[in-house]
Known about the structure:
This protein is mainly alpha-helical and 123 residues long. It has 4 helices and no strands. Helices cover 77% and strands 0% of the residues.
Amino acid sequence: MNNSLGRAATLFFAGILGVAGVASAALASHASGDPRLMGGASAMCLAHAPALVGLYAAWPTLRTAAVAALLLIVGTLLFAGDLALRHFAGHGLFAMSAPAGGLLMMAGWLTIAAGAFMPRRQA
């Protein structure tokens, strides 16, 4: 993926996850039924949106920014998407999609941590 395209996509998904986090929090508070699924989706989106903004800012120097962003984006979409679909349709995306998303998010955070020990790119 083109470096500038990946960086722009990271900021784009930060905005999308931020909106999804606020919308799912509103649904958890005001919609009928059990609020836990949408509350969980909201928490994941709102936790990872600012992380993506941080990766966008660190992109020029953090060697692991692109991989970490991809892992966090895909992981959050799987995890939150599965919870939202369970809330609205009564079934998830596919078997083990939320745990797979959770593992991808954890891998993304570990990728950020690993980047701390790599030489910085020249900005």
